[in-house]
Amino acid sequence: MIRVSENIILKPILNSDTKTLFQLMKEIYPLAYSHFWEDKGAWYLNSQYSEKNILKELSQKNTDYYFVIYKNEIIGNFRIIWDAKLDGLSIKRQVKLHRLYLHQKIHGKGIGKQLVSWLEEKSKHKNYKAIWLDTMDTKLQAFEFYKNLGYQYQSHVFLNFELMHDEVRKMSQVYKKL
Ligand SMILES: CC(C)(COP(=O)(O)OP(=O)(O)OC[C@H]1O[C@@H](n2cnc3c(N)ncnc32)[C@H](O)[C@@H]1OP(=O)(O)O)[C@@H](O)C(=O)NCCC(=O)NCCS
To answer: Taking the domain 2-177, which CATH number applies?
Structure first.
């Protein structure tokens, strides 16, 4: 357990937590992204949060995967990949913020900001020089959130998932020097 602030705790996700994580994301993901998908996000949710994929992600080296706990309740997930390099970004020692999904009911309370700033401090301590992440351009809540925290555009791709609506396929890679 890592205490980020008085009310926010990070609890490492274990192999025995796959069902809990799936149930959590079954609630969180569609609230945020169902409008991106023809099937409301069911296919994406089932692939990213299948038992097989969660166990694979938990077994990957140089990663941390946490439940976010706010006032004793699990309200999100948070995954970090240490030493993941962004193509075209020539900074040594980069960290990827892979997943940060918080439940809609606690958005806008500063929890996301505290988690990102916790990661920035922790990364600096570990002598990392940059953090980067993928963010969907049309999901302004997230796109503007990272922009306001000082994350800069590096590149973009168009996702080719079959069930994704065409107009939301653009995903940017943004980074911040530490
Ligand atoms: C994006 C997310 C992590 C932000 O966390 P949060 O705790 O809600 O955000 P905070 O309260 O810390 O910060 C709010 C900031 O977000 C930005 N923001 C939030 N909603 C916004 C919106 N609709 N339009 C523009 N900016 C917005 C603002 O910069 C705001 O800063 P301010 O409070 O100074 O105005 C969270 O909302 C979330 O998990 N969303 C759904 C899942 C998701 O999209 N995850 C990101 C995947 S890349």
So the answer is: 3.40.630.30
